[in-house]
Amino acid sequence: MKNPYRPMLTTIEKITIENEARDLKTFRLAFSNGSEANGFRYRCGQFAELTVFGVGECPIGIASSPMEEGILEFTVKRYPDGLVTNALHNCRLGDSIGVRGPLGNSFPMERLEGSDIVVIGGGFAFTTLRSTIRYMLHETNRAKFGKLTLVCGARNPGELLYKDELKQWEARQDIETHITVDEGDEHWKGLQGFVPAILEQVAPSPEGAIALVCGPPIMLKYTFPVLTKLGFQPSEVVTSLEMRMKCGIGLCGRCNIGSKYICRDGPVFTYEELQALPPEL
Ligand SMILES: Cc1cc2nc3c(=O)[nH]c(=O)nc-3n(C[C@H](O)[C@H](O)[C@H](O)COP(=O)(O)OP(=O)(O)OC[C@H]3O[C@@H](n4cnc5c(N)ncnc54)[C@H](O)[C@@H]3O)c2cc1C
Ligand code: FES
Q1: Which atom of ligand 2 lies at the shortest distance from residue 262's CA?
Q2: Residues near 190 by beta carbon (within 8 Å), at least 6 away in sequence
């Protein structure tokens, strides 16, 4: 039987520095073993445990889209005192990284088909939403979804993730984008304001729509009431939790809230499911 704790070997193929503070990097990894590469079939919203050998491992959401055969990307925020995230940021092209996964449940892509989708993201939690947007915009998938609306933000223009991609999405006719920063600078010509406030101004219709929301806890706290005010039912709001984990496969008991293991039963939950959990978040 395959050991679920044994990471698969990958090599760093590309590193993109995402922000001015240089504490957000996207790593493109290539599997060393062809059959492991073929076996790594993931869905939008899943995560993997990334290992820096000799240091440790940590859970990171998959930022690439399952539609892009052979491409596997993760965007990692370096915590000043973070063991693994610092070690990852010190890695260079060609270094070996371990990958365990794909883990967790996923965004309910089949259930989303036929609906209008409102994607709401903030800060570096935008990673799995990027995967989802790329999936929905893919030429073989776009017709399966209704109107796509994106409201996303960051603290300032330099902190926006995937800047080139945001520009490409802004230029498209088949996704409506509202990109905002808490505080602009002399070059910023876009929206300014917190994500929940911009969402309230944009006021997407809840009719036949589902909202996908990922962001820092403070953004989620103010976004859920706005969605409720706009008329979205808690069952039509989907989010992803990023809490501390260890094994990532439902065995160690480190990530439970009530009877749910976030690593195994999540990290994706509807707002309705979250409301039914004990208030430990
Ligand atoms: C399902 C899931 C998906 C994730 N996706 C991403 C992602 O796409 N990109 C990304 O950069 N990060 C993501 N994270 C968070 C990431 O796992 C943590 O940043 C990482 O574990 C920190 O490891 P470390 O060894 O560097 O820090 P540690 O040495 O373990 O801790 C350093 C500091 O960070 C704090 N910390 C560590 N983990 C968390 C956490 N989960 N929540 C709050 N504080 C924490 C600690 O309290 C401590 O102060 C995800 C987490 C989960 C559970
Ligand atoms: S991290 Fe071990 S049970 Fe979830």
Answers
A1: 4
A2: 157, 179, 180, 181, 184
User: Which ligand sits nearest to residue 58's alpha carbon?
Assistant: 1
Determine the residue of 242, 249, 257, 260 to mutate for testing ligand 1's pocket, defined as the one with the most ligand atoms within 8 A of the Cβ atom. 242
Q: What pLDDT digit, counting tens, does each position of 135-162 carry?
A: 999 999 999 999 999 999 999 999 999 9
Q: Which of 19, 106, 244 to mutate to test the pocket of ligand 1 (most atoms within 8 A of CB)?
A: 244
Can you tell me which residue has the tokens 């017709």?
Answer: 143
- Nearest ligand, measured from the Cα of 59: 1
Prediction pTM value: 0.96
The owner of tokens 């006021």 is 203
Which of 17, 58, 77, 220 best tests ligand 1's pocket when mutated (most atoms within 8 Å of CB)?
58
How far apart CA 247 and CA 58 sit, in angstroms, is 9
Ligand nearest to the CA of 260: 2
Q: How far is the CA of 244 from the centre of ligand 2 (A)?
A: 9
| Mean pLDDT value across residues 243-252 | 91
Indicate the average pLDDT of the chain. 95
Instruction: Give me the mean pLDDT over the 198-208 stretch.
Output: 97
Please tell me the distance from the alpha carbon of residue 76 to that of residue 213, in angstroms, as a whole number: 19
